[in-house]
DNA sequence: GTATAATTATGTTTTACAACACAAAGTTAT
DNA sequence: ATAACTTTGTGTTGTAAAACATAATTATAC
């Protein structure tokens, strides 16, 4: 791989972490960094594997999910560029408890966790970066527990649509979700069966809260969706 | 408060963190540290408040919980001596998303987060301590999502009993759970109604998996309980 | 371009669990 | 001790959502 490409990626796309490193650290990052492409639905890592790398999504979309009983997966977190993942299990000194897969063709950067670990020890700002990330994720995870266990189907689906909106935003028309996912993924995000995701989505269409064209979802009434998410 | 008592508490009970601090840091901790007692069911902090303190449970039992729709609380985490809590929201720069309350009369230590924050910046081992804690908690939280959403009532209650066993252990008889909680709390731990917690508990008694004497729960067949937890 | 598979859609049946109602036992206050 | 309240226990009813079934439509492979 061409070193200058990597240098550009790191100093440009990964600026957030990059800027807190000193020049020696930067050189070591450049040397250890690898770029990898993943196809649609390709698995990046799987539950129970030993965590060895810090992943950084540069282009595309990635889901973190966990397989439950009877192979019913639950999508735990959605990753967008430029976000980091794959580090939690290493820090906890555990095997992965969840898996990661690309939603669509994606480009990822990859660093050995041993190097990241070493840098955390030498660079306090980097330690703070991970403390912040972990703390935010833990808050979201705790909140998700309530959403998934206590809300009814409509509320859970509305919540999922809001999550997609907040995570990936709208297209240029300011209303079409900038991610096209299968009904099955939508179901796995909202803890329901695929049938019920389809049915409930149709309901929202009938109520003119959204329109649907295949996997393109257009949100017509976002306040109503937030309301259903909150009370449903 | 008598300074020597605090010094003993910190150097003895809180040895895990204490040992990684230098003498100047230790002195500052002793000066800022306060001891507080909480009565049974007393709230330590509540959702939406601004986080200001690191709490350390020295004696007693504490629950972290989150109120859901219609006032149905979900217990998110159980704290035992000596564990730390209350720091996540501060690190995430958010108000609390959950509340903390004492299960039983408890003694807690309390430090301003601003001081903790400063020490993390100056002491990398302390940064690592929190990275580890947060990472483990995030793993548990993600796993809990699957347990609460995909398991049936029996599996969820079995899981809760196992959690109590792993967290607080057995009494001297090696089978009685070392925590006596109301059926309602048991229900709030396992995402079910109080009636169903009572009913399902009775079921376990009939099947000779446990015995019940008021709030004393004796586990007769732990392997079976783990089995129900895993597949139920 | 046709076959095969996957996804989307909708109707029907079944069931796990909440909601409710009430009684008994236990706890706390006066 | 007695009352007032809380917790525990059990039966009944209602319902949300899963499970199942079966088309229709859309992708994908050959």
Characterise this structure.
Chain A is built from 10 helices and 10 strands. With about 230 residues, chain A is of the alpha+beta class. Chain A has 2 domains: about 150 residues, Jelly Rolls, CATH 2.60.120; about 80 residues, Winged helix-like DNA-binding domain superfamily/Winged helix DNA-binding domain (Arc Repressor Mutant, subunit A, Orthogonal Bundle), CATH 1.10.10. Chain A has a 4-stranded antiparallel beta sheet. In chain A, helix 7 packs across helix 8. The model of chain A has no long low-confidence stretch (mean pLDDT about 95). At the A-B interface, helix 4, helix 5 and helix 6 of A face helix 4, helix 5 and helix 6 of B. The structure holds a DNA duplex (30 and 30 nucleotides).
How would the blueprint of this fold be written?
Two copies of one chain form a homodimer.
Chain A: H1 3-12, H2 15-18, H3 23-32, E1 34-38, E2 43-45, E3 53-59, E4 62-67, E5 73-79, E6 83-85, H4 88-92, E7 99-102, E8 106-112, H5 113-122, H6 124-150, H7 153-168, H8 183-190, H9 194-206, E9 210-213, E10 216-219, H10 222-231
Antiparallel strand pairs in A: 1-8, 2-7, 3-6, 3-8, 4-5, 4-7, 9-10
Helix pairs in contact in A: 5-6, 7-8, 7-10, 8-9
Chain A binds a DNA duplex (30 and 30 nucleotides) through helix 9.
